[in-house]
Amino acid sequence: MTSERERTYHHGDLRRVILDAALDVIATNGPGALSLRDLARRAGVSHAAPAHHFKDRTGLLTAVAAEGYALFADALAGAPDLRERGVAYVRFAATHPAHFQVMFQPDLHRTDDPDLLAARARATEAVRAGVADLPPAGRGEDERLAGLAAWSLAHGFATLLLSGNLADAVEGRAPEAVFRSLTGLIFTSENGRAS
C-alpha cells in the first residue's frame, strides 16, 4: 500500500521542495549546515529520496549554484548600463543570499557541470556587455581589467552587505542607492560628472 508521503514524492515536485529547503538552511546557517538527510526529513520523504534528484550534497549545491547563476544572469541582463548592472548585482545578493553564498564558492559544487557553466557564462557576458558599452576613457586600456574592477566593486559591496559590515554606512537607506552613490564617488568622467 502506498502512503500519502510516497504519493506526494512521486507526484509532487520533490526537486523544487528540496532546493527550497536547502536555500532556507543555507540562508539561515550557511552551506556547511546542509544535510540531505535533514532535507529529506523536512520534505517528509525517505532519506534516500533527495539522492534520486541530486546524487549527493555536492550535486545539490551544484543545482543551487546553477539556479543562482541563471537568476543572476536574468537580473544583470535587464540592466541598461554597467552601473545598473552593479545595482542589480547588489540587489540579487540581498534577495538571494543563499544562492550568492554558494555561487562564489567553487569548492562547494561541481564547476564542470554543464548547466552551471551555461548559466555562469550568461552572467559573465552580461557584465562584459556592460563594460563594452562604456566609452573608451571609462574602460581604460584593458577591458578585462575594467570588468574585474566592476566585479570587485559590486561583489565586495554585496559581500560586505550580506555579512552585516555595512549597517552603519547604509544607515537605513536602500543598499542599491548607497551603491549608486559609491560608484558616483569613484567613477567620474572627464567633466566631473559620474559616468
Characterization of the model:
It is a single chain. The protein has 195 residues and is mainly alpha-helical. Helix content is 71%, strand content 0%. It has twelve helices and no strands. Helix 5 (57-77) runs antiparallel to helix 6 (82-95) and helix 5 packs parallel to helix 8. The chain is globular. 32% of the residues are buried.
Outline of the structure:
The protein is an all-alpha fold. Helices cover 71% and strands 0% of the residues. It is globular and about 60 Å long.
Mean pLDDT over the residues: 86
The helix tally amounts to 12
Q: Tell me the number of strands.
A: 0
Q: Into which percent range does the helicity of residues fall? A: over 70%
Overall shape: it is globular
Structural class: mainly alpha
- Residue runs with pLDDT of under 50 for 5 or more positions: 1-11, 189-195
Over all CA atoms, what is the radius of gyration? 20 Å
Fill in the keyword field for this structure.
195 residues; mainly alpha; 71% helix; disordered C terminus
